[in-house]
Amino acid sequence: MKPLLRPRALVPGDLVVIASLSGPLHAEYEPDLEQAVGVLERMGFRVRRAPLLEVGRRRWWSAARPEEIAEEFNGLLRDPEVRAIVAHDGGQTVFGYLDLIDFRAVAADPKPILGLSDISLLHLALYARTGLVGFHTDVATPGIGGSWQRAPAARRTELEKLYATLLTGTEAIGTLPTGPAWECWRPGRTEGRLIGGVINRVTLVQATPFALPLDAFDGAVLFWEEAGVPASHLWTYLHVLRHAGILDRISGMVVGVPHEIAGLGESPSLREIVLDVLGDRAIPILANADFGHAGPNLPMPLGVRAGLDAGERTLTLLEPAVVRG
Question: Which ranges carry the LD-carboxypeptidase C-terminal domain (predicted)?
């Protein structure tokens, strides 16, 4: 596994670009995108929209052809003025351009790439190929400009401070804010590197040349979430990870908030599904933690060491995601 590659910490006035790394921008969400721009500006950054982030621009389910998205993405990676890239939304496109990414540019000038859903595939592939910390966070439009704006004012303030610290702070964030809905499914404590994302991408990337080596999961804390699939798919994805030997290597698991999962109820519940697949693997499991498609999302920096105490329902980031420039 590559050594962990942390981006340089952002400073006030740095340029953050919002880009269409997967799905298109629909006209009705333009106000949400403007809200996201305002939030990032309040954090002290300059904000620019990448050219493909344009209402009405689309190709099938994507913002553009995979080759066009890759070209724009690589341009942002190579541009020394750009200090962070925030995905506008998720989608179904990243698999189409993984093999077009300029990984040398990532290694030469590592930058935070923020997002979830399809963007978690970018995090996983970049971590596997370069060691880059993955910033599993809310995307710009439905997240920062959407679900954040529907949250209570105190929660919005907390999230803004947390994300700003994630991008600018060179000390460990420490214990993340615990929500009242967090659940302990199996007690215990562990420490390990956070690895994860939306579970279908965690599973599918392992069938590509961009797979994480199995030893990357040794002692890791696997975090995952999912949206818009039947409950049976979750059971299947977890079994794929079992067959791959990944569930035998991890030291703990953090499950996010499921979103629009058909077939979940009293039986099977998500807890039953997870415990059924894990069997007698006695690892701590924290569940219903505040990340996932429903948002707002606590940051889950892929590759960063975390301390998990499922019994106390706490997750602690033990090291920073960025380094002093």
Answer: 191-307
Q: Quote the CA–CA distance of 69 and 124 in Å, as a whole number.
A: 18
Q: DSSP secondary-structure letter at 130?
A: H
User: Residue 160 is which amino acid?
Assistant: E
266 vs 264: CA distance, rounded Å: 7
Angle 231-243/270-278 helices, nearest 10 degrees?
20
What is the distance between the alpha carbons of residues 113 and 33, in angstroms, rounded to a whole number? 17
pTM value is 0.97
End-to-end C-alpha distance for the chain, whole angstroms? 24
Tell me the catalytic residues: 117, 225, 293
Convert the pLDDT of each residue in 102-158 to its tens digit. 999 999 999 999 999 999 999 999 999 999 999 999 999 999 999 999 999 999 999
Structural domains in the chain plus CATH codes: 15-168 (3.40.50.10740), 174-317 (3.50.30.60)
Q: Alpha-carbon torsion 281, 279, 209, 59, what sign?
A: negative
Quick count: other Cβ atoms within 10 Å of Cβ 266?
6
